[in-house]
Design brief:
Elements (H helix, E strand, L loop, with lengths): L1 H28 L10 H10 L4 E3 L16 E5 L5 E7 L3 H8 L4 E5 L2 E4 L12 E8 L2 E8 L7 H24 L4 E8 L3 E14 L9 E14 L9 E8 L6 E6 L9 E8 L9 E7 L2 E9 L5
Amino acid sequence: MKGIRYLFGFCVIFLMVIISFQSMQNAENNLSKENVFTKTTNVVELMNKEGYKLELAQQNSADSCIVEGVRPVIYDIDGTGDQKIIIYEFGSVEERDKALSGLKGVYIDNGIVMLEMFGNITDKGNRYINYYYNVRNTAVFYYFQFGEDTDSNAAVLNVEKGIDTGKNIGSAIFKNINDGKTVEYEGKGKCWESKAELNYYQHYWKNNNTDTELGYEGWNSETWKIRYLGDDAAALGEFSVNIIKNSATGGGEATTVYANLDKDGYLNLGGTSGTEAFDPKGEYNITINWQGKSETIQLDSVNPDE
């Protein structure tokens, strides 16, 4: 029996060593280039899962869209030629950034860009918008053609539909391919309460086994809002808000008024976004100065990122 106990103990230790070794190997594998490589098929599968029916477009339209030797794959959405997904699959994040850095176009807002090379994809004129998404080594564009007549109610609704679709696709890519995370913060004082939301993803990798520096690809966006708890909100007048934090970008001080509240009575303070590396486990403190008074609120995470 003693020999059996020794043998059992040895087996447990041996198993723990194997598990530890495998965990170390998995940690190293998570830094490999393959784990930050996205294929065109990954994007297509996600689009189908989200309910968008993709059909391969006539590829002669891709001839004018070749970038640094990479010819995109273009799909029509839901059988129309007015909405398209345009996918460039590069060999690495670095190749993607280098190829797209010289593109001519106009950045509008919230991921909307207008690139000159997409003006000839259809023969319906050049009134279009396109959203751009970083998907690791792959660049994905959502293209929406809304025609010549932009003054009619139908045209306005079409544009709004296109913008909503662009945002929905971006949200799906953020969560399902870029492994995006959302962390929410809340805090409450005697006179004010506040909420903040952090959305981000971060990818690290080794270009080869001898590299000491890691490759990096990331994005973060933060928004803040506050709500007054007193009964004299109409008399607040102008007041200042100072946001201090040690996580991603942003923060700073601003002067505002308590107006244009959301349905829950919160004042939206706006937000910031960036692409640099940061610590997502940071803290937020908001100081509000009004009518000769001051209150500082510490915001704690209500859904800590594990």
